[in-house]
């Protein structure tokens, strides 16, 4: 928050007791102004369900997304967060490859290990500082597609689990590979698991396709999926999967068979409804 000066208008003294309690997510006080145990129950908006109306783009739902600190402050500590850190995919090797391709001089002006990791370090510090200050007692998981970001997050702290997100070699139509963004740690799931194991990460997040969720995208033999499963178990890595097909009832049996940790899906309420109907 900005420093307080003579132009500051949102001073605490300008708020009524009811307004302050509302800002803190607390229910209204009793009619006599006294607090009791029931008054101090924290209230938060109920989660959205499939039966809720579509968001109003011109209303509050159409406003810019809240910052991470605001998201923590405005939600219950019972709500866990997966904080996925977005960072440019270009690796240090990619920067050198780009310079060579453009026939630029390879000298000390080019990004090196020091400047490359200094930038990542500063970025991770900012995120972690926000979490320490505002997350409270809630469960927080850290994750990133950038393998170096995952490594830095793990080296900087051991309290929060870190997951390495990778397509595990499954090709993407929207992100064609090029020599500037090739990272061998994404070459296949086996390599990704080895990196996660070496860096003592908590696990990986990958495509359900690798475990038979969507055979149209990429056919993976069941024996290969089982080998992935055995490798994950041997390295004691958690594995969450996402993508087409993971929310289907028939994949739940495969996920159980392969010992997957969890599924990443949209519309949890709809999934639970379909799952309960199938029982």
From TrEMBL:
Pfam families: GDPD
Domain of life: Eukaryota
Molecular function GO terms recorded: phosphoric diester hydrolase activity
Coiled coil: none
Domain GP-PDE: 1-275
Keyword Transit peptide: no
Entry's Gene Ontology BP terms: glycerophospholipid catabolic process
Gene3D superfamilies the UniProt entry points to: Phosphatidylinositol (PI) phosphodiesterase (3.20.20.190)
Name of this protein: GP-PDE domain-containing protein
């Amino acid at each position: 928050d900005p420093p307080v000066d003579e132009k500051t208008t949102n001073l605490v003294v300008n708020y009524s007791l009811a307004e302050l309690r509302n800002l803190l997510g607390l229910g209204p006080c009793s009619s006599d102004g006294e607090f009791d145990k029931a008054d101090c129950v924290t209230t938060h908006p109920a989660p959205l369900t499939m039966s809720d109306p579509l968001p109003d783009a011109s209303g509050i739902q159409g406003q810019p997304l809240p910052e991470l600190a605001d998201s923590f402050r405005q939600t219950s500590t019972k709500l866990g967060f997966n904080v996925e850190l977005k960072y440019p995919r270009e690796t240090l090797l990619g920067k050198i490859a780009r310079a060579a391709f453009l026939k630029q001089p390879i000298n000390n002006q080019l990004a090196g290990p020091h400047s490359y990791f200094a930038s990542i370090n500063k970025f991770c510090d900012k995120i972690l500082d926000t979490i320490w200050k505002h997350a409270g007692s809630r469960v927080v998981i850290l994750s990133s597609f950038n393998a170096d970001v995952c490594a830095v997050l793990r080296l900087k702290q051991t309290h929060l689990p870190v997951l390495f997100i990778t397509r595990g070699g499954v090709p993407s139509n929207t992100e064609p590979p090029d020599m500037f963004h090739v990272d061998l740690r994404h070459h296949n799931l086996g390599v990704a698991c080895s990196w996660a194991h070496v860096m003592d990460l908590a696990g990986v997040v990958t495509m359900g396709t690798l475990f038979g969720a969507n055979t149209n995208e990429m056919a993976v033999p069941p024996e290969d999926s089982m080998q992935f499963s055995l490798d994950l178990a041997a390295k004691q890595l958690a594995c969450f999967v996402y993508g087409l097909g993971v929310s289907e009832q028939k994949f739940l049996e495969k996920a159980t068979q392969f010992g997957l940790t969890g599924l990443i899906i949209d519309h949890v309420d709809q999934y639970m409804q379909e799952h309960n109907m199938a029982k």
